[in-house]
Write a structure and sequence with these properties.
Largest sheet: 7 strands, mixed
Low-confidence stretches: none
Structural class: alpha+beta
Number of strands: 9
Oligomer: single chain
Distance between the termini: 69 Å
Radius of gyration: 25 Å
Strand content: 5-15%
Shape: globular
Mean pLDDT: 92
Helix content: 55-70%
Number of helices: 25
């Protein structure tokens, strides 16, 4: 048994760690934020807004739970501001997940075959693989939830509640799921954690609860909550105006609208469209040619769910039923693979259970089905490595890395640097790739709100009086380039069309460097005045 677990661990690690700096093709904005927050914590003990050892991170774009940033500090120290430095924590935690799941499944079923096959199913699950190869908080969250559940069954309540508390510091869906799950575990096992364990749990969570209810983290929940969607509110008010009767007021109201959309999200999360056909519409969270799972695992999952129900393995069925609830309370939560990541463990267990059952009763059928699943997995892997990086490069914001690394090399030669901030927000990318000293940033940064004509013909904001982030405000901007100044301009926003400045730049523009896509199309130019 130990040899099988070592083999699964090695397989999971190989699939998640090899080529992390190549596929996905580049660090996207949230990953960059993780990396620079970790860089700042490493060198100053503060986040970007100078909070000392924060219990909730203030990012330039939105508040974020902090645990992934802290977990990334050692790898940033070891590998620097690179894709390896940012992605290794998720890859390592993702590689450990199948082993943790094995221990948990064996604890609940006492079946070595089901436990091994569930572990293998998780190791090979596309959904879990995609997420383990990028800096997504939910990968760590899932391990902590499984560890907490395992420790609950072993009656190690203090450690159990510690794992659950840490899980709530990883990603917002855990804030709702963990209390629900603790109640389920208490109901199923008829065991209540000791009072000291509960007090410790409450003490650890107090800063988080304050941030979520009263602090700046509250804004993030309000922005994505079903109850705060202005479009739906307008729609409901319009319907009530068209039917101003008592029945209209009873059947058309905020509660009815919220429940209807919650139920729609909840059912979408179990749809074949999401799980097996297309997946999350966001190409960072699905490769688009299949769903979040291998389509050919569908029969195994159905058989596995039937067996789990027949054997009254309520823990996995209840986990499956509760997992979509946090996501379903958010706008677009029905197809949001990150918020629905809680579905991964019970689906892996259902898959492994189905394989074990069919193998026991119809071995020849199981062999054919497993062979076809492996062929499909190989095909998906080939697509992921060969085509996905090219087709998804806009989602992974390819081009920033080369542009900003080159910028950091040559910018000392110039008195002012102007960086396009409309293609994507550029400040956090500049800070990360240029390894801008966090101490210096803390002293200089005030706000990233643009000012009109902060420099003639340029709207934006400044850092250090040298770096300007924004865009030109006149169409003939090439005529007003300043001397001894460096400009990062966007092909889409500043040049337009298919005019390639590498071969035919304007007369007064000198192109110093061009950052391109995988098919050699220009994205950014570094230019100066001739």
């Amino acid at each position: 048994m130990g040899k099988w677990l070592i083999a699964i661990l090695a397989l999971a690690g190989f699939l998640r760690i090899v080529g992390l700096n190549i596929v996905p093709p580049e660090l996207f904005g949230d990953e960059i934020d993780v990396g620079y927050q970790a860089y700042s914590l490493l060198h100053t003990g503060q986040d970007l807004y100078r909070q000392i050892l924060p219990t909730y991170i203030r990012s330039l774009s939105e508040p974020r739970a902090p645990l992934l940033m802290y977990a990334t500090v050692p790898t940033i120290a070891a590998f620097g501001n690179t894709a390896w430095g940012v992605r290794i924590p998720s890859a390592v935690w993702g590689s450990l997940a199948p082993i943790i799941l094995f221990l948990l499944v064996y604890q609940t079923t006492k079946s070595k075959s089901i436990s091994l096959l569930s572990s293998l199913s998780l190791a090979l699950m596309p959904w879990h693989l995609y997420y383990s190869r990028a800096a997504f908080e939910v990968v760590i969250m899932l391990d902590l939830l499984m560890l907490g559940t395992l420790l609950f069954f072993k009656k190690r309540f203090a450690l159990c509640l510690l794992m659950f508390a840490l899980a709530m510091y990883t990603y917002s869906t855990a804030v709702l799921f963990v209390p629900l799950w603790i109640m389920v575990l208490i109901f199923l096992k008829r065991k209540i954690p000791s009072l000291p364990s509960i007090l410790l749990f409450t003490l650890i969570l107090t800063p988080l609860i304050y941030s979520v209810i009263f602090g700046f983290a509250n804004s993030r929940f309000n922005n994505i909550s079903l109850t705060n969607d202005p479009d739906e509110t307008k729609k409901m008010l319009l319907l009530r105006q068209q039917n101003p009767t008592l029945a209209g007021r009873i059947f058309t109201n905020q509660y009815e609208s919220t429940f209807h959309r919650f139920w729609d999200n909840y059912m979408k999360s179990f749809s074949t469209e999401f799980l097996f056909v297309r997946g999350d519409p966001n190409s960072r969270q699905s490769i688009q040619v299949i769903g979040q799972l291998l389509p050919l695992t569908f029969p195994f999952i159905l058989v596995g769910l039937w067996w789990l129900a027949s054997q009254r393995q309520w823990i996995w069925l209840l986990w499956l039923a509760l997992a979509p609830i946090p996501a379903s309370l958010t706008v677009g939560g029905g197809f949001h693979a990150t918020r629905l990541f809680l579905l991964v463990p019970p689906l892996a267990v259902a898959t492994g259970t189905g394989i074990a059952y069919i193998w026991h009763h119809r071995r020849f059928v199981a062999l054919i089905a497993i062979f076809l699943c492996l062929l499909q997995f190989i095909w998906v892997g080939y697509y992921y490595w060969t085509y996905y990086p090219r087709l998804s490069q806009r989602w992974w914001q390819v081009g920033f890395q080369n542009a900003f690394i080159k910028l950091s090399e040559i910018s000392p030669q110039y008195s002012r640097v102007f960086i396009n901030n409309t293609y994507e927000p550029s400040l956090i990318r500049f800070l990360f790739w240029a390894k801008y000293p966090p101490q210096k940033f803390h002293r200089q940064f005030t706000a990233d709100q643009p000012q009109n004509n902060i420099v003639s013909n340029y709207n934006g904001f400044s850092l250090d009086g040298k770096y300007f982030f924004g865009n030109f405000n006149k169409p003939n901007w090439t005529e007003s380039l300043l001397p001894n100044s460096l400009y990062v301009i966007s092909q889409r926003d500043n040049v337009g069309g298919d005019w390639d400045w590498r071969t035919s730049p304007p007369d007064n523009v000198r192109v110093l460097f061009t950052s391109t896509t995988w098919d050699d199309s220009p994205i950014f130019y570094l230019v100066t005045r001739k």
